[in-house]
Amino acid sequence: MLRSWRMKLKLLLATVTLAILLSWLYLFVGSLEYGRFLLLPPCLGEQPSRDLEREALASRVRRVEEENQQLRLQLSQVQVEGSDGSPQWGASAEDGDPAGGERSNRTACPKQRMVHKCELLHVAIVCAGHNASRDVVTLVKSVLFHRKNPLHFHFITDSVAHQILQTLFQSWMVPSVHVSFYNADDLKAGTCSPLTCPNPPEVSWIPNKHYSGIYGLMKLTLTKALPSNLSKVIVLDTDITFATDIAELWAVFGKFSDKQVIGLVENQSDWYLGNLWKNHKPWPALGRGFNTGECVILLLLDRLRRLGWEQMWKLTAERELMSMLSTSLADQDIFNAVIKQDPALVYRLPCFWNVQLSDHTRSEQCYSEVSDLKVIHWNSPKKLRVKNKHVEFFRNLYLTFLEYDGNLLRRELFGCASLPSPPSDQLQQALEELDEDDPCYDFRRQHLTQHRVHLFFLQYEFLAFPNPTDVTLVAQLSMDRLQMLEAICKHWAGPISLALYMSDAEAQQFLRYAQASEVLSARHNIAYHIVYKEGQFYPINLLRNVALANTQTPYVFLTDIDFLPMYGLYDYLRNSIQQLELPQRKAALIVPAFETLHYRLTFPKSKAELLSMLDMGSLYTFRYHVWPKGHAPTDYAKWRTATVPYRVAWQPDFEPYIVVRRDCPKYDQRFVGFGWNKVSHIMELDAQEYELLVLPNAFMIHMPHAPSFDISKFRLSAGYRGCLQTLREEFHQDLSRRYGAAALKYLTAERSL
Question: What are the boundaries of the region Disordered (predicted)?
């Protein structure tokens, strides 16, 4: 780089000199011409000297121009440019030292082939379970924030992480980001070793004491797990944070020698030195060993395959396990044992590519300035509570990406062609067709908004074989209703599916709240699905559909978060489903709704207690004073004395809370904010000829709360109410197209109001 700058300085000085000489020549010649114009002939004796001066000056100008050309030629030889003419990231002269230690922790001049602007970079990540899936999101945010290249993420996952991450990336829709998934179960099945099995499993035969379990061995299998045409890949752990463009790391591949196949950072602890305690016997390693278990790895897959990597590591593991009996640090032990045998395989990455924030490491030697940091690795079980004199800086950097709005990362890479994405293209076309002068433009745009969705945000125990009469409580909420969760858990023992509408920062607040709650942390049958905020309206029916689609039980109880179900309702509903033979009929069971205006309520333990409170005026039928049409068809007078379920007919604006099969119609997502979101759903159930049956011994009570922002807009804005009416009319038209003459009664009922 110093050489380049010196040449640039010389070129600048030469150019300035040339400009001065040319200007002087221009002024000199101009003065002569000016003299002639004034008809003042020069002295005859002065003419020869002036001619000599002009010739000397012209000769000097030619010499300076020749020097300029030589400098330009030399400069072009040391400045490598990308395909589009702009300099790109390259491997630095001091980016790593394959033979010895690190020479510097700073990036120097480009030396190897540059990373072209539109070159596709491949990243592999092993991810299993709910917690690792959350960590991946933060990692991906940090990569996307700095990146300037298209990316292809390769995830080796279990079934849980696959479902979570596939939904997340499909809903995220980040341009120039591609995602592939590989089933980890195919790689871990079986327990016999390669010496005793004709078709042995990949890694499950290896005894492993590390807390990462079987997934801590998966990186050994990447040459087989990843596509055979993939020649190189960056392997990342889930708990790291990038502080630079990942293209800088990709460029390091250009520094590998012909024999090097793997790039690793030296271990920053003394584990492999074998002196941590008496009789400490680690696996064999080269010096301090290399960190592979939870870090950054560069793999030249094509070379590894040609070397017979699969057989190489398995033979090494078999030999060492005869004396070591098990691995202590999962695949890291096996990688190091292989490298110990053949040190030429490894390219030593500078430690700023893996600043390990755990106790008893030498991480502070990896950086001297903020600009030195490349990758921060939270590899201690203590995570953010680890001891480091700069931990506050690192913590703030990590929290920045943890709470960063992922919607802002949906940015195009200009100048790079993107692969066609039908969902994204269709959405973009629909948005372009919207009329911005339409008074209801904001409603229509909200309906088309693509929200990011993170399913199963917390630990959830999936049901292997759901009971045929089992039922899940389904609801949605935002941050201001969070306090209802613990109360609902005390009233409902069965599974719950919740869609939470939150920002990235609010999702982290919810995580801390749920983990600190004794009630919530003790429950593992509650599925929390985060739908990230975007737009000005609350997408209530989208939230309901997300919660509904991710239930496992055959039946669902469709309610709202402001209601407390009666004690024992879960068991009562299961018994009712069985007694009414609901699997053989198309029916929706109605749970009568009541409300109280008191924040402190002695909750009734039976129907008799509820009727007594109803007569005393401490309870009311739901919304009787502001919206009686919503629940009047329930026929509360009949319910008071009913002992068996009774059938009711659909009426306009009926919106009861129901128990129905999971495969019921979805909610219509055009209805956002307040108004007609449940009414439209009940209307469609009726159009599909569902029976509406009121349960005689079931009830739920609405608890008081401040009005939502959307209901306030509905009450104050005539435009809001006008758009809701427009959406209702469009819904009626769609209903008529789907159900024909059977839907005419809804339009007739609407006009008669």
Answer: 79-106
Q: Are residues 403 and 491 in the same domain?
A: no
Q: Are strands 151-157 and 121-127 parallel, antiparallel or unpaired?
A: parallel
Task: Read off the tokens for 661.
Answer: 């099969």
Task: Starting at the earlier edge strand, list the strands of the sheet with 646-647.
Answer: 453-454, 526-532, 496-502, 471-478, 555-558, 657-661, 587-591, 691-694, 646-647
Token pair recorded at residue 383: 């995570």
Q: How far apart are CA 697 and CA 639, in angstroms?
A: 9
What is the DSSP code string of 643-700? -S-EE----TT---EEEEETTSPPPPTT--SSSSTTHHHHHHHHHTT-EEEE-TT--E
Tokens found for residue 513? 């709240």
User: What is the spatial distance between Cα 569 and Cα 708, in angstroms, rounded to a whole number?
Assistant: 28
- 385 and 323 within one domain: yes
Out of 347, 378, 409, pick the residue that ends a domain.
409
* In the predicted structure, residue 692 carries a pLDDT above the cut 60: yes
What pairing do the DSSP bridges indicate for beta strands 496-502 and 526-532?
parallel
| Residue for token pair 């030999």 | 319
Average pLDDT for residues 226-238, to the nearest whole number?
94
pLDDT category of residue 270 using cuts at 50, 70 and 90: low
CA 530/CA 456 separation, integer angstroms: 8
309 in the same domain as 216: yes
Residue 163's alpha-carbon distances to 156, 180, 456, in angstroms, are: 12, 12, 9
In this structure, are 372 and 482 located in the same domain? no
What integer pLDDT is reported at residue 84 of this predicted model?
A: 42
CATH number of domain containing 639: 3.90.550.10
According to the model, what pLDDT value does residue 196 have? Answer: 56
Of 104 and 648, the structure prediction assigns the larger pLDDT to 648
**Could you list the residue range(s) of the whole structural domain that residue 365 is in?**
121-409
Residue carrying structure tokens 């005539």 = 718
Last residue of a domain, one of 409, 439, 461: 409
Q: How many domains does the chain divide into?
A: 2
Q: Are residues 303 and 388 in the same domain?
A: yes
- 398 shares a domain with 512: no
Q: What is the pLDDT of residue 446?
A: 86
Identify whether 116 is part of a domain. Answer: no
b/e per residue 484-514 (b: at least 16 CB within 10 A): bbeebbebbebbbbbbbbbbbebbbebbeeb
User: pLDDT by residue (tens digit) across 345-395?
Assistant: 999 998 888 876 655 555 566 665 556 678 887 654 444 455 555 667 777
| Residue 725 in domain | yes
Confidence at 328, pLDDT banded by 50, 70, 90: low
Token digits of residue 9: 């300085």
Please tell me the distance from the alpha carbon of residue 277 to that of residue 281, in angstroms, as a whole number. 9
pTM of this structure: 0.81
Average pLDDT over residues 435-452: 87
Quote the mean pLDDT of the chain. Answer: 81
Give the SS3 label for residue 496: strand
Tally the C-alpha atoms within 13 A of residue 361's C-alpha that lie toward its C-beta: 22
**DSSP E strands, 267-336:** 290-291, 296-300
Residue 648 belongs to a domain: yes
Q: Are residues 394 and 518 in the same domain?
A: no
| Selected residue with higher pLDDT from 677 and 85 | 677
Which structure tokens are listed for 339?
């490298």
Structural domain includes residue 20: no
Q: Could you give the CA distance from residue 417 to residue 175 in angstroms, rounded to a whole number?
A: 10
